[in-house]
Amino acid sequence: MMRKTKKLPNKFYETKPLIGIDRSLDLYDHPFRIGEYSLYRGMPGERMEDKEYNFIYGTNALQESLIKYDFLSQVDGRARFLVHKRVLDKLQEMCPDDFQAFPATIKNIKKKNPDFENHDYYVLHVIPLIDAIDKDKTMVKVIHEERWDIKNLIFKENCMGKHLLARVRRSVGIYIFAPKLAREFVNSRGIEFCSDIEHHSWRLNFFI
């Protein structure tokens, strides 16, 4: 659940974006690739068509465990985050133009668990694509012309402009939050925030 905290590390008040790292239950979509099932194919920098989708995901968790999470991640496709309605309400309040949200159904796929259908979560499509990487300070090794191996990741200062939520140009798998927005979710379940410096120990590959 989202809770307020009194004292936060300095990174939550600085001028560089923070990376949202998923720390949640795993959701799966492979059991549902039949019929009218919709696979998330949202492209960064582009709005998705405003229509009704049929996003269905499976979980091995009990429903009472599932609903404790504010953020969920999906391991079989490209939907990095599913967010609970309580998160969606805050996002709509703070940065309504930075995303689209589409209703999702989450079902039990573990035979020994009780069946359920949950409709509390939404697939989060983050639209802005930000040129956030400081190419002068970031060390890279070119593996081939379309792929770089990042040795250290350094973001530009104040790179998000008017946006509070975005993806990183040339590394679209990185979801970034303005510190102002990250503070709202610092104690949310299912997500952690790290700075570019903290991310150095991670091996990060990205496409040009």
> What about the largest sheet?
7 strands, mixed
Question: What is the terminal separation in angstroms?
Answer: 37 Å
The total domain count is 1
Mean pLDDT score? 88
Radius of gyration: 17 Å
> What's the oligomerization state?
single chain
Query: Counting H and I runs of at least 4 residues, what is the number of helices?
Result: 3
Protein described:
This is RES domain-containing protein. By secondary structure, this protein is mostly beta strands. It has one domain. The protein is 10% helix and 32% strand. It is built from three helices and 15 strands. It has helices at 63-66, 85-94, 179-184, and strands at 18-22, 26-27, 55-59, 71-74, 82-84, 99-108, 117-118, 121-126, 129-130, 140-144, 147-150, 165-168, 171-177, 191-194, 204-207. Strands 2, 3, 4, 5, 6, 7 and 8 form a seven-stranded mixed β-sheet that branches. The chain is globular and about 50 Å long. The termini are far apart.
What's the helix and strand layout?
Blueprint (H helix, E strand, L loop, with lengths): L17 E5 L3 E2 L27 E5 L3 H4 L4 E4 L7 E3 H10 L4 E10 L8 E2 L2 E6 L2 E2 L9 E5 L2 E4 L14 E4 L2 E7 L1 H6 L6 E4 L9 E4 L1
Parallel strand pairs: 2-4, 3-6, 9-12
Antiparallel strand pairs: 1-13, 1-14, 4-5, 5-8, 6-7, 6-8, 10-11, 11-15, 12-13
